[in-house]
Design brief:
The complex is a heterodimer.
Chain A (H helix, E strand, L loop, with lengths): L3 E3 L2 E4 L4 E8 L11 E5 L6 E5 L3 E2 L7 E6 L2 E7 L7 E10 L3 E4 L3 E5 L1
Parallel strand pairs in A: 2-11
Antiparallel strand pairs in A: 1-3, 3-8, 4-5, 4-9, 5-6, 7-8, 9-10, 9-11
Chain B lengths: L2 E5 L3 E2 L5 E8 L8 E8 L6 E7 L4 E3 L7 E6 L4 E6 L8 E10 L4 E7 L3 E5 L2
Parallel strand pairs in B: 2-11
Antiparallel strand pairs in B: 1-3, 3-8, 4-5, 4-9, 5-6, 7-8, 9-10, 9-11
Classes of the chains: A mainly beta, B mainly beta.
């Protein structure tokens, strides 16, 4: 089965920029993987941020953006705020029969 | 405002069947664009996709759980349900019900989530 890999942890300073990535064991991630990104804070349900690579939900702050970068899906936070400290998960479509696979998550620390 | 609410036993014995229901309110349940998903998260671990159902009854399951999972839908009650058989301690997790949207050439997963329900597998 496809394995989706994210950085286990990243640290960023307030006001800085950080990019989280999401790789597939089957090869380069393309838009056909419909990358989705989620933010989860302790004790809360995940919240969707980005769908189908670049599309933001109505509630997604402008400082979050999605892209494809070097064969991976990417989530970039520009002008990081302390409240962005959270776990971030990507989700990729990996097969014909509605097979979706989550990455292991990236713990983002704002320090 | 769409709301999803999971319900079901919080404790299940090993080898028995876990059963959960998700009630959907405040919005359309039978739009052809909507798919209804179960996702779980073991304590302290990451998210795992379980499976998805369309209101028409079409289902798709994660290959790793396919032999033990069944998802069904009741359009008269705006509900969809999860059954997971032969559970073990490894099935202990917070179970979330989630809406997903087919926008045509784009997929949006999880624009709405239930609050999640913890199911513990223990004797």
């Amino acid at each position: 089965q496809t394995v989706v890999t994210q950085e286990p942890s990243l640290t960023v300073s307030p006001g800085g920029t950080v990019t989280l990535t999401c790789a597939s064991s089957t090869g380069a991630v393309t838009s056909a993987y419909y990358p989705n990104w989620f933010q989860q804070k302790p004790g809360q349900a995940p919240r969707a941020l980005i769908y189908s690579t670049t599309n933001k939900h109505s509630w997604t702050p402008a400082r979050f953006s999605g892209s494809l970068l070097g064969g991976k899906a990417a989530l970039t936070l520009s002008g990081v705020q302390p409240e962005d400290e959270a776990e971030y998960y990507c989700l990729l479509y990996c097969g014909g029969a509605q097979l979706w696979v989550f990455g292991g998550g990236t713990k983002l620390t704002v320090l | 405002q769409l709301q999803l609410q999971e319900s079901g036993p919080g404790l299940v014995k090993p080898s028995e069947t876990l059963s959960l229901t998700c009630s959907v309110s405040g919005g359309s349940f039978t739009s052809s664009s909507y798919y209804w998903v179960w996702i779980r998260q073991p304590p302290g671990k990451g998210l795992e996709w379980i499976g998805v159902i369309h209101y028409s009854g079409t289902t798709y399951y994660s290959p790793s759980l396919k032999s033990r999972v069944a998802i069904s839908v009741d359009t008269s009650k705006n509900q969809f349900s999860l059954k997971l058989s032969s559970v073990t301690a490894a099935d202990t997790a917070v179970y979330y019900c989630v809406r997903s949207v087919d926008y045509g050439a784009r997929w949006g997963i999880g624009d709405y989530w239930g609050q999640g329900t913890l199911v513990t597998v223990s004797s």
